[in-house]
Amino acid sequence: MSDLxxxxxxxxGAEAFTADGGPVGLLVLHGFTGNxxxxxxxxxAAAGAGLTVSSPRLPGHGTVIExxxxxxFDDWTAAVEAAYQDLAGRCExxxxxxxxxxxxxxxxxxxxxxxxxxxxxxxxxxRAPDPAVLDLVRAMLDAGETIAPGIGSDIADPDAREIAYxxxxxxxxxxxxxxxxDLQADLPxxxxxxxxxxSPNDHVVDPAESxxxxxxxxxxxxxxxxxxxxxxxxxxxxxxxxAERAIAFVxxxxxxx
Length: 257
Known about the structure:
CATH superfamily: Alpha/Beta hydrolase fold, catalytic domain
Number of domains: 1
Number of helices: 8
Distance between the termini: 39 Å
CATH topology: Rossmann fold
Order of helices and strands: EEHEHHEHEHEEHEHEH
Strand order of the largest sheet: 1-3-2-4-5-8-9
Radius of gyration: 17 Å
Low-confidence stretches: none
CATH architecture: 3-Layer(aba) Sandwich
Shape: globular
C-alpha cells in the first residue's frame, strides 16, 4: 500500500457518512475520483429505512486530486475491508452496494466474505480493459503525464452534479485496471444474491460490463435497467428507484430478526 500523508480538507458534501440503525447493515461504496456524496441519496434512504449504514471516503478521494495521485487499489481495498469489518462487528447481517469502481470493490469483498448477505452493483466497472488501454496509460506515465481528463458527473439530470475531481490520476487508474484483471478469478466465487442496476446511456462504463458480471457470478442475479440515467445514476433521475430497489433487496436477503 502507499505511504499516504495527511489528506487535505474534505470537500463540502464529500464527507463519509454513517448512521446507526437496526441489526442489518448496508456498506455503500463510491467510485473512482468520486466520493461518498456520489452515493449519498442511497445511504440516506437506507438510514431512513432503519438500516445501519456506512459510506466511507476512499483514500485520496473527496479532497484535492493531488491526494489521489499516490493512492492505489490496495489502499482502497484496505479501506473497504476495514469499513466492512467495523460494520459487520455491529450488525447481524451486511449487504454491500457500490457504484462504478465501488462495484468492483463490492465484488472484491463478496468474493472474500461469503457471509455477506447480498450485493448491489450500479453501473459496475468489473471487466479487465483491453491490453491496448493498459499500454496507453503506461505510455502516458512514461511520458511524464500524471493526470488524464476527468470522468466525473456523467449525469442526465441538468440540476444534479457530482463533486468529483476534474481529472483522472493515471497511476491510480492503472492500478485499478490491473486489479480488474486479477478480479476476474474472484467473480465466480461470488455466491450471494446480486442486484445489478445498469444505465444503457452510461458514457463512462460500457453497459456490457454488467452483462459480464451477471454471467460470471455463481449466485442469483436480479437486473434493473435505469433508462433515464447516465453513469452516476445514484445522483440522476433514477436515484429514488435505486434506493427503493436496494432497500427492498436488503429486506429480502437480510430480513431483520
